[in-house]
Structures are given as C-alpha cells and as structure tokens.
Amino acid sequence: MSIDDGTTVANDRLAGREDMIVCVDVDKWYGDFQALKGITATIKEGEVAVVCGPSGSGKSTWIRCINRLEVHQGGNIVVDGIELSNDLRNIEKIRSEVGMVFQQFNLFPHLTVRDNITLAPIWVRKKPRAEAESLATELLEQMGIPEQAEKFPGQLSGGQQQRVAIARSLAMEPRVMLFDEPTSALDPEMIKEVLDVMKELARSGITMMVVTHEMGFAREVADRIIFMEGGEIVEVGTPEHFFTNPTEDRTKLFLSQIL
Amino acid sequence: MANSPPPSIHHDRPPLYRDVTVVKWVVQVIALLMVLGALWFLAEQAGDNLTASNVPTDYGFLSINPGIDLSSGIDTDPDTGGRALWVGMVNTLRMAAAGIVVATLFGVLVGLSRLSNNWLLRKLGSVYVESLRNVPLLVQILFYGAVFASLDRVTTDVGPINGWFHISNKGLSMPRVHIADGFYQWVVVLAIGLVFANFMRKRRNAQQDATGDETYPLLSAFGVVVFFAIVGWFIHPIFGFVGNIFDAAASAISALPENVLQLLIAALSITVSVYWIRSFLNSRRTPAGLARLTDDDYFRMIFAAVGGLLGALFFLVLWPGLSSWMINSGSDFFDVLGNKFGDGRTGRPIDVALPEIVQSGKFPNYGPSGLNFSIGFAAVFFGVVFYTAAFIAEIVRGGILAVPKGQTEAAAALGLRRSTALRRVIIPQAARVMLPPLGNQYLNLTKNTSLAIAVGYSDIVQVGQTVYNQTGKTLPVVSIWMFFYLSCSLSISVIVNFFNVRMRIVER
Amino acid sequence: MPELNPIVVEAGIGETGPPQQGVNLSVRQWLRTNLFSNWFNAILTLLGVFAALLMLRGVLNFTFSENREWDAVRTNLRALMTLSYPESQYVRVWVAVGFVMALAGMSAGIWANWGGVSVKRMSTWLMGSGGLFALCVLLREPSVILDSEGKVLRTVEGSLQRESVWAAMTDRLGWWIAAVVLITLGAAIWAWCSEPDRRNNSVAVTTVVFSGLGLLVLSLWLVPYGHYAFADGTYIAVPGRTVAFSTKMPWTVMWLLLFGLYFVGRSFRDTRWQGIVRGSSNFLWLISPMALFWVVLRDPALDYAHVLSTDLPMGLAFGVLGGVLLWALTRSDLGEAGRLTAVGLLGFAVFNWVAAFFGLYPMLQKARISFLLVALAALLAPNFIGEVAKRRQLILGWLSAMALVHYMATMMNTPSTVDIQSSEFLGGLGLTLFVAVIVVLLSFPLGVLLALGRTSKFPIFRMLSTSYIEIIRGVPLISVLIFFSVMVPLFLPDGMELAELAAVLTGYTLFSAAYLAENVRGGLQSVTKGQYEAADALGLTAAQRTGFIVLPQGLRVSIPQLVGQVISTFKETSLLAIIGLFDFLRVANSVIPAQSEFMGVKREGILLVAMIYFFFNFTISKYSQRLERRVGLGER
After folding, report:
1. Would you call B14 an interface residue with chain A, using a CB distance cutoff of 8 Å?
2. Is the domain of C373 the same as that of C488?
C-alpha cells in the first residue's frame, strides 16, 4: 500500500486548502485485539472523504476516535489544528467543532425534535434560546421536515429521525461532520431521503467523513475514497481511480463482492 | 503538496488541571479522602461524646452474666451475654429457615392460583396478595399477637396432654422430634450413603446418555440414600470411632503456635492480592505481549496491593488476638464434635416426645418435652410467612408470565407432552426470571424477623435490646446485629448466585 | 412438584390464557368457562366458595362481635390522628389539611386527564356491592347458629338469648335497605344502558370521586358517627358530642377546597399560565411538608429582636453577596477562573466544619450551610453562562433558595408554642405521614446520587456507593434506626428539641436511599450507550449529560419501582412504634389499651390502622399501575 496516496489529494478543488483532520500512526487496541494499525491520513478542509471496507475493518473505530468517543492509544490526531490529547479543553473544543451522525440515530427520545436540536446550541454554544430556535426551524426546513418540530422522535420514521439527527449536529455549526454508517439502519425506501440531504450538505462545502456502504453516494459525492481492511488503510484514491482501476487485490475483491 | 511528509505534530502536555486522567483520579482520590475523613471525624467526635456522656462501648458484657431470661430458645437462662446473643441468633435462623420454606410453598400456591383459569381462585388470589402486601408487616404481627394473646388460658391440669396438639394463650405445643444419642454416628452413615448416591446418579446419567433408556438417575440416587438411612438406623453404633478422629484434630489444632497462624493469615492476605494482580495481568496478556494498560488498570492493581498489605498489617499488628481466637474456637469445635460420638451414645438417632403441661412458678405452662411455639413465635411466623408469600406469589406469577407464549407453542410443535414441556421448557425459563427476586424476598424475610422485638419473641434483636437495656452497651450490640445480618445476607446471596449460575448453564 | 402440574397446565401458560374479558357471554357460558370448565376446576370452585364464605363469616363475626369495643377507636380518633395536639389550636391542623386539599385539587385540575368510568362497569359494581351487603347480613353469626327449635342463638350483653331468624334479620334493617337500594340502582343503570346508543357512555372519574366524597361529607351532617370525647388527655364521654359533630364543618370546607381548586386548576389548562401554575404547584408540594409541619403546626414563638438583628441581615447578606458573585461567575469571558473560584469556595465551605471540630472560629450552622450552598451554586454557574435571561434565572433561583433556607432554619430553631407533654408536639397519623413524606423527599436526591455513583465509570465512586448500598441493604431497618437514635443525639447540642425526630429521619432517609438507589440504577442501566455517545458528541459536559439526557430517561423508566419504594417507605413508618415515637400504630397498640376505660383493647385499633395503611397503599399502587399503562402507551 502506498501511504503517499493517503495524504495526496488528486483533486484540483481541494488543492491548497488547509488540513482539517490529520491522523499520524493512530493505534487502537481492544484488549488484545488491535483495531487500528498505524492509520495515517489527512483530510482537507471542505473535503468529502468516504471510508469503506468490510465489516470489522476498523472504519467506525477510526471515525469514533476523531471526536474521542474512543480513545486512541498510539499516534496523534489533530483536528483543525487542535491536538486530541488528554487536555480537557481540547476535547471540549473538538467535540463542539465536530458533528457526528450515528447509525442508530441516537436522538433523545424524551425531548421533542425542536429540543433535541436546540439543546446543545443553548447549553454548549451558550446561544440565546430564541436564536437557537430560529436556527432549528431553519435547519428543519433545510432537511425538509419543518412540520415535525413539536413531535417526539418515537413518532417519526427512521429516515426522518436520521435527518433530525443531522440537523441536531449541524445546529452546533461544526466545521467537520462525521457520519457513521448513517443509512445502515434504515429501510431501503428511506435511504434516499437521507442521502439527498447528505449530498446537499457535501455541496455546501463542509468537511465530511462518511463511513458507508452506499457506493453510489461515494461515486457521486466523494472527493476521495479510503478503503480499509484489518485496521489498515489499504488504498486511497479518487472515485474514478477507485472504481475503475483499483491497484490493490483486496480492493478488487471487496468491490467485486459489493457491486 | 504531492509528496509532503506526514505532518510532524508538536506534543505538549496539557497543564495538570486540564489533563483528563489527572483530573479524573484527583477528583476520585479527594472524594475518597473526604469520605474517609468524614467517617474518621464522625467516629472521633462520637468517641469523645460517648466518653463525655459515659456511654460504654466495650464488648466486656459478652462474658458477663447478663441476668436475663429469654422467652424461648435453646437456652432460656444464658449464663453470659455472648451466650444470650447466640441463643437469639439461633432463634432468628430457625424462624428464617422455617419461614422461607413455608412462605415459598404457600407463595407458589397463591401465585399459581392467580394464573388459574378458574375465576374464583384468581380473585381470591388477588384479594390475598393485595390486602397482605399493602399492610405493613409490623401491623400484621401486632394483630396476630393480639389475637393469640386473647386465646383461652392454659388449664391447670398438670401432666401429659391428651392428644398431640394444644393451643392456648401460652402458644402452641406439639410433639417434638429431637436429635438423640446415636444421631451423629447415623449422620456418618448417611454421608457415606450420599457419596454412593452421587456415584449412582452419575453412572445412571451416563447410561441414559449412552443408551437413551430412561434410567431415573435422581430417583435411584434417592433410593440409595433411603437405603443407607434405614441400614444406618441399625448399624450406626459401629461408627463411634469417628469421634477419635475429631478429638485428634482438636488436639492438633490447639498445638498450633499462635505466631505461625498469625503469619499464615498475613501471608494469605498478601498472597490473595498478589494472585489477584497476577491473574489480572494475565487477563491483559495478548499474543503480542502485554496489552497497554489504562489508568483504571493501574489503579486497580495499586488498590489490590494496598489492600493486601493493609490486611496483613491489620492481622499482624492491630488484631493479634484473632489467631488465638481461631485456634481456640477451632479446637473447641472439633472437641465438641468429638464428644458427640462419646461413650454410651448408642441409642436411637432420633426420638419423639409428647407435649405436657407443667407447673412452672405460679402459672401452669408447657413443659420442655414438647415442641412449643410461644405466641411471639407464632405471631412473627405467621406474619412473615403470610406477608412474604404475597410477594413470592407475585414473583411466581410474573416469572411464568414472562415465558413467551411461543415457547409453549414451540414445545407443543415438537410433540413434547405437557408435563415434559413444563419440566424442560417452561419451568427452567421461569425459574431464571424468578430466582433473583426470590432471593431478595428470602433476604427480606430474614431481616423482617427482627420485628419480633414488637411481640417479645427472643430473636437476636430482642435479646440484644434486653442486653443493652441491662448493660447500656447499645453500640456494641448494634454492631453485632449488623455483623450477623450482613453475614446472613451474604450467605443468602452466595446461595442464590450459585443457583443463578447453574440456571444460566441450563439456559445455554 | 408433579401434583401442581394440573394447575399450571390449566393456568393458561400458552394456549389456554386466562379467558378473555369483555367478550359478551351469557351467564351460563361465563360460569362454564370461568368456574366449571372441567371436573378439577369444578372441585376447586366449590372448595373456593366454601373457603371464601367461611373466611367472610369469620371476618364479619370478628368485626361485629358483641365483644368488639369499637368505642375504644371512636373515642380515640383524635388521638390516633394527632395524639394530644391541643384543642385550642386545632384549627392549625385543619389549615394544614386544607392547604394539602387545595393543592391536591389544583394539581388534579392542572395536570392529569383523568378519563372516565364506563357506566356499565359502575352498574355491575353497584350491584356487586349490594349483593355483597346482602351476603354479609345473611352470613353474620345469629342467622346460622340455630338451636333445636329452629331459633337463633345470640349473645346479648354476655348472656345467650334466643330469638327468631326473622328477628335476627330485621334487626339489620338498615343494611338490608342499603343492599336493596344498591342493587336496584345498579339494575336501573344496567337497564338504562341496554339501549345501543348508551352502551359506551361513561362518567368522568373526577365526577365519581367528587360526588363520592361529597356523599361522605354529607353523611357527617346526617349521621352522628361515634361519640367523641377525647379532650386534653382525659377521656370523658360527653353526650351529644360526636365525631361528626366536631368535624362536619371542617370537612365540608375541605371538600369545597378540593372541588373548587380543581376547577380553578382546570381553568388554567391549555392557557399560557399552565406552565407557571404547574411549576408553582410542584414547588408548593415540595416545600409544604416542611412548612406545614414546622411553621403551621408548630407555631414557633419568634424572638423578633433576634430575627431583626441576626437572622434577617444574614439571609439578606448571603442572598445579595451570593447573587453578585454568581452574576460575576456567569460572565462569558471567565474561562477556568470560574471553576477554580467555585472549587476554592467548596474547600472553604468544608473547612468551616473542620474548623468547628477544632474550635477555631465560631459560626452559625446556618451560615455554614449557606456557604456550602454558595459553593454548589458557583459550581453550577458555568452552565448558566449566556444570555441575560439565563443568568437572571440563576440569580432568581439563588435568591429564592436563600429566602427559603433562612426562613425555614429560623423557624426550626425557634421553640414551639404548642405545649404538650410528649416528646413531639404532633403524633398519630400526622406524624406517620410527616415522616413518610420527608423521608421520601430527602432520600430521593441521595438515592439518585448513589445510583449515579454506582453506575459511574469512576471506580472509586462506584466502590463507595456499592459498599454503602450493599451494607445498608444487608441489615434490618430496626437496627439502623436504633443505631442512629443512639448516635445522632451525640452530635446535637444538649437538650435540642428535635433530637429524637432528627435521629429517626436520618436513619429512615439513609436506609431508604440505599433501596431507592437500586431502583434508580435499574432505570439508569436501561439508558443505551448511544444516548451517552450522542450527548458526548454534541459536546455536553458530564453534568449536562447526566441532567438533560441520562436522568430524565432513567427516572422515567424507574417510575413504577419508585412508586413501589414510596409504598415501602410508608409501610416502614410503622416501625416508629418500636423506637419510641407515638405514631398511630403506637397509639393503637399501647396508648389505647392502657386507658382505664378500654383496658387491653388492642385488636380494634390495630385493625383500623391496618385499614388506613391499606387505603393509602392500595390507592397509590392502583394509581401507579394506571400511570405505568399510560407511560407505556405514550412511549410507543
């Protein structure tokens, strides 16, 4: 494999942009199992990176390390110039700058959709309530579900819940959005509505890191595709490169199984 | 840009007050110190105040004659405070054991009746449960006590009672089945029988597995035990020699030097902690060497090591009397056991005596030959049994309802008979749900026997109260209570956990 | 247990479930499916009927036996309720009850949607109770014991008398009339709703409850219940003075308060005042036990010179200076300095007690507590950084907390003007309720903290909470209570009035908190890991995560267990009788039997106590089941 490709962006759009996420030799063990083996990669500002790979390849673990839901044990992670270390202040800062969308939505079932979205802006960003609420309304409109604001998450469909979850993360006005298999728990007919929202988001220029099996999405939106297996980055490249002539055998095998 | 090296990252340790690990452990250690400090502070002040107000806190009363009479128990006129409390403990345990058995039987019946498809039984069951569990146990006990106290007086005819049972405001008297001279020899025969029975059960099980025939392993094992019990009834005198073995053990223990035992205990304490740390490290070992330890792991090991050292220090320095106490009580135990096999003990293992009425003091009362239950006992017994049964009934009901309907259907689809399905499918699953709360109820029942204090049955709390009223040593008595009940709780949870683990294996 | 199998098999695990209710069966079909489905069931039914009749007869004979002295209970009703609270100040008791009634009415109006009872169910219920009345009258002793001439044997004033069955039955004419009226009423309603369009009619629960209570109150005016005679420690039967006589007026007022405030509360529903009214009624519920017990019932004799010179200035100083400090601490540009200040304050607050121990400098206990509260509020302050409205919220909360704490502390420290002989100025049911309510209120925060500690990822916190919980749960309540009744007085100044009660409350609270913690833990464990992760990913602090996400969800799940815990706590208050306080069980068990008129009369009083406990607990548990169903429905 070539680390070189991992840090190179073969895309004019991103040339000269700042580094947003920098990972150097990131290691992570669960007991005696090494989930991440020396991950090194750089994501540029405004880049849309899709991480794919077979299950158990460490892709979820990696992006969960980036906002410290998991603690990496070796190497360094720097997000927007802030190193993810034991420093409380850095952790707080990174968490408020990195939004995350989960596979299982993880909406707060006891709060209305509006409260789900305004909770963090009010209490973490210290915004006035009125401002937070108008932001919530705006975001819900952007997500195409303005009429659901007063409902509870349990009353929404899966696709609607996931869009609320995206709105909840966006309400923090993050610089980076992480998506951990956002469509895997959805019924097929709902996947599209979530992917549409994500495509729109990608066009808005926010930095995105997406773990997904949706290859159509990857081909259409991604600036780069990162293929992982066994806790390592196997191959990195633009969608054309990745789908048309992958260099690694493992990548070819994976693509033959999934496409 | 194309071939830029991996960005070098400038490390700077955050200041201590912002470091996650440091903050986490400093907060915890400060909290621990504050709790310990507060306890020490309270104990210190309590000690000062106790001395100032002349409240004694020593345990001297344990070996002094308290001069109290107990209403019932193995020794109603104990010669030391310790003996009195011991009698109380035995009474509590008796009450708890009897209560647990009867409450379980009764509770299961009520619980099943609440599931019956007979409308009347269901209603009666719920009336029982709702009315009993919504009234405090103490109120019930006091009520039973008041009812029993208003029963007829004992007649003045002294002598054996016509018939087997007698009820009056002194309580209930019935024939007593008691341990007689040959009992312990007989138990030896039974123990040998149990070994054989276990062997038999295993063989039959293996046979059943091999051939598929129904071999009734439990039934045959039970038969073996019965056989040995009957044979033992006649041949038990020849096992008198076992007593000599116990005597030898007693003298061997008393010959043990105190210092050696003390060192042994201290060493044991350290060994346990070392062993724990080693097995902990082993659990973190991987094919690629030791995995990275987190801060939690380090602190666990530190605490284990400190605990082991403190334990050793405690046994060596602070409580050197422990070893002599252990030696004495150990040799006493085997001595007593040896005496049970002593000369001339060749009578029947078990005997029966009929109740009688004797003139003790001014008023006639039941004599010691029958099995007597005072009204205190009866009130507490009925109280805890009926009360706990209401809760057990709910647990049984909940447990059976918790087995999904699909299980019964699946068993039926496999062609299992109803009884087989119940035995092999429904009850194991229901029992798994029922066991933990059932254990809790047994615990509650045991603790609830302490309400005997309200009707004057001599359980440990009532005896303890009498003792501290006489001697003024409230705190030592309370500490003994707590120690006793904590041991009971621990034993019950160990037993329940044991069955819990077995149930889980059954489930697999 | 093979012999039990038949029952289990019949018991409806699996395909034969308990028969479906609500399906319209004819009486014969109903009997067959529910009582006589096979020979085994038939035998069980017959046995059950026999046993039930026997038991009912036993209860009736016990209750209405000529040997029962219900006078003992009737005469001592006031002692059972409030022990010897002086008659001259009794209006205070009524004010307290009235306040609670008003609050209850208000809350019922503003909060719950009570639903309805179907008319059909009411009619079967009426007919059923009518039938039960008739059955009871028939079963009672004289009707059954007949001598050789077919006459009834009956004990009247100690001697056996003979009378006809007819005489025995007509003797209870009132009961017969009641039975007939009930059955007729039920049958009439049944007939009325047999028309298809009325079949599903229902009456609001509130209407049923209020009119039922109204009938009870009305009966006080019509029937002279009980002969009331207890006054200031003497027990003299005064002719014409009945329980009804002295309570009909107050109870009417209570009923009006309940009824009226219900409508007031309901008129606020779905208006913009709803939130405010709900909030303030919750707040009143929280403070009313303390305020009613220590201020209204206790009637403290305030020393105004001291109040003006010390208490008032101190409260003001803490309020104002603390408020200024908190205002400063909620500035957005403060950073870590705010937290460090708070930690420093906390250290100082703790040191105040250490200093007291070593006698370094004197300080009022009130001041020490206030300093601790300042420190805690300062720790909370960073959460309120932001817009002015939020900061103002914190300051207002602080000011009212200070006002409340200082007011209550002053009141509790002032001696009571209620002058009676026993150690507490209030006893009986009043004391029981007070202890139960206070223990529930105090043990709740402690229990939640312990549960959080036990589920925390910090090992030392976990260890501390676990050992506390397990030790407390391993020992009986009575030993804990006795321990604290020895220990607590050692830490209080000599001759302090509240020593005994304080000891009891400490013991109960610490005991109850351990059990409550276990219940809450169950709920906390049901909060999924994803919820924690989502909160972390949004950047919420640990305190915010706990307060906004984990606790609301965990507590909601554990509501049924928490209600169960409330019931246990209430039942445990009966132990007050053992440790020397005069709750109503003690009055029934020791005080009444010691009166010369009612020497040794115990069972009647204890039965009444049992009935009161049953009434409260049964109501609470039924309500909790209702709540559980509703919460379950809402969650989907």
Report:
1. yes
2. yes
| Paired strand residues for A76 | A24
Partners of C385 on chain A (C-beta within 8 Å) are: 126
- B163 CB near a chain A CB, below 8 Å? no
Q: Which residues of B touch C41 (CB under 8 A)?
A: 117-118
Size of interface B-C (CB pairs under 8 A): 214
* Residue C345 and residue C235 in one domain: no
Provide the whole-model pTM.
0.85
Of C539, C552, C636, the CB nearest to A172: C539
Average pLDDT on C203-222 reads 87
Which chains touch A (3+ CB pairs under 8 A)? B, C
Pairwise CB contact (< 8 Å): C548 & A96: no
CATH number at residue C485: 1.10.3720.10
Task: Name the domain boundary from C253, C278, C301.
Answer: C301
> What pLDDT score was predicted for residue C550?
94
Measured between CA atoms, how close is A127 to chain C, in angstroms? 6
Give pLDDT, residue B508. 39
ipTM of the complex: 0.91
Looking at the fold, whether C416 and C537 belong to one and the same domain comes out as yes
Rounded to the nearest 10 degrees, the angle between the axes of helix C388-413 and helix C312-329 is: 160
Strand-pair partners of B372: B173
The total number of structural domains in chain C stands at 2
Q: Which domain holds residue C315?
A: 303-603
Asked which of C301, C321, C353 is the last residue of a domain, the reply is C301
C194 and C308 within one domain: no
Contacts of C574 in chain B (CB under 8 A): 136-139
Q: What pLDDT score does B289 carry?
A: 62
pLDDT tens-digit series, residues C429-468: 999 999 999 999 999 999 999 999 999 888 889 989 999 9
The answer to whether residues C341 and C251 belong to one domain is no
Mutate which: A32, A90, A233, vs B, most B CBs within 10 A: A32
Q: Is C22 on the interface with B (CB under 8 A)?
A: no
Q: CB distance from C238 to chain B under 8 Å?
A: no
B4-54 pLDDT, tens digit each: 444 445 556 777 777 888 888 888 888 889 889 888 888 887 777 777 777
Q: Which pLDDT band holds residue C13 (cuts at 50, 70, 90)? A: very low
CA dist C228 and C75 (Å) reads 5
Q: Give the residue among C30, C24, C198, C222 at the shortest CA–CA distance from C122.
A: C198
Find out whether C585 and C576 touch, Cβ atoms under 8 Å: yes
For a pLDDT cut of 70, what percent of chain C falls above it? Answer: 85
Given a contact cutoff of 8 angstroms between Cβ atoms, the answer to whether A76 and B9 are in contact is yes
pLDDT of residue C228: 58
Q: Residue A11: what are its φ and ψ, rounded to 5°?
A: -140, 120
Phi then psi for residue B392, to 5 deg, are -65, -40
